[in-house]
Design brief:
Blueprint: H1 2-29, H2 60-65, H3 67-81, E1 97-102, E2 107-111, E3 126-130, E4 135-140, E5 150-155, H4 156-165, H5 169-174, E6 179-184
Parallel strand pairs: 1-6
Antiparallel strand pairs: 1-2, 2-3, 3-4, 4-5
Organism: Lactiplantibacillus songbeiensis
Protein name: Extracellular protein, membrane-anchored
Length: 186
């Protein structure tokens, strides 16, 4: 009977070893577990990539219909492309601009703050003239000098083409919100 018990115990031990070894082998083939729990978002479809809408190009028709956009385009060009040093005085886009219009002379004074007060207008500002053919002549007074104004003349169609070429249409279209105009009829 002891032989029989020894055989049964031996069999059970052998069976235990085989089962234990099988579990070890099966465990090593198992995929590694992640430390991060699965989320419901893993079943979602990938996000669609949307391309931004292209900004419409500026047109001469648009500038004719919207004077503030026309002034903004002229100011933008004056700051970026005239290479007249004093036009940099109006380059703070956050402060905006005040444009004083003298219709009788077709003269537009450009002040460097949309809220500028008369007492702050001590020095002659930058200004431009706009003729009926669309020619814009930029003027800048030379401080501490007896020389003539620095000037540059460019056509409004060239201004529009440059803004469109540089993809600055969106920036220029935002400028009128930071622009005030004062009209002088005399």
């Amino acid at each position: 009977m002891t032989k029989r018990i020894l055989k049964i115990v031996g069999f059970l031990l052998l069976l235990g070893v085989l089962i234990g070894g099988g579990l070890l082998v099966a465990g090593s083939k198992k995929a590694p577990t992640t430390t991060h729990p699965a989320t419901a978002s893993s079943n979602k479809q990938p996000k669609k990539v949307t391309t931004p809408k292209p900004v419409a190009k500026l047109t001469m028709t648009e500038l004719k219909r919207h004077p503030d956009l026309r002034y903004s385009s002229i100011i933008y060009y004056g700051i970026k492309y005239t290479h007249i040093q004093r036009w940099q005085e109006v380059s703070d886009f956050s402060r905006g601009w005040q444009v004083e219009i003298y219709h009788a002379q077709a003269k537009y004074l450009v002040w460097p703050d949309k809220h500028i007060k008369a007492e702050a207008k001590q020095l002659e500002p930058n200004w431009f003239k706009l003729d009926s053919q669309g020619n814009v002549t930029y003027h800048s007074f030379v401080v501490h000098s007896f020389r003539d104004d620095q000037t540059k003349t460019v056509n409004l169609t060239e201004i529009v083409a440059q803004i469109n070429h540089d993809h600055a249409m969106k920036k220029v279209r935002q400028m009128p919100t930071n622009l005030t105009t004062l009209n002088h009829t005399k």
